[in-house]
Amino acid sequence: MADPTRVKSSDIAVKLDLDRTGTYATLCGFTEDTITFGSSLEELTMQDCDDPTKVPSVIRDKVSTSISIAGNGVVAVESAEKVIDAAHDPNSFPCKIEMTLGGTAITWTGNMQVESAEVVRNGIRTATISTSMQSDGSFTKTTT
Question: Chain-wide mean pLDDT for the chain?
């Protein structure tokens, strides 16, 4: 049995353009991101046409797709205020998700909205921050 080719965390990056200048950067202080590629499904009950006494089946149609990102780390002077401000900004901002799988680079580009930003003060230890972001519109996938 062959071992799988593992992907390191350094091969995955979430880059944001919170200033909307065309310059994407990772958030300073953030050490962990969770990227969720999701779909919304609509369920319908389908009765058997040949035998209406059979228990109906459920069929599903995909009605939308989305990307959500949850990130956390330490409160860094370089990024914390921008993240908190983005939580109150009614406008979305550009985002890139980059992933290298073996020799293949995949990038998803689109817009995000900050859903929440949470700062945690914990005694004398370093303050931490977490954020939740949701896609705003479609993302374009490119593979090189």
Answer: 95
Predicted structure pTM score: 0.87
- Here the tokens at position 13 are 């990056």
CA atoms within 13 A on the CB side of 106: 7
Contact indicator for 93, 44 with CB cutoff of 8 Å: no
- Determine whether 135 is exposed, middle or buried from the number of CB atoms within 10 Å of its CB (0-12, 13-18, 19+): buried
In a domain, 1, yes or no: no
pLDDT tens profile 114-140: 999 999 998 999 999 999 999 999 999
Q: Give the position of tokens 């993302």.
A: 139
Number of domains in the chain: 1
- Give the confidence band of 75 by pLDDT, cuts at 50, 70, 90: very high
Domain of 91 in residue numbering reads as 9-143
Specify if 100 maps to a domain.
yes
Nearest partner of 92 among 121, 115, 61, 59, judged by Cα:
115
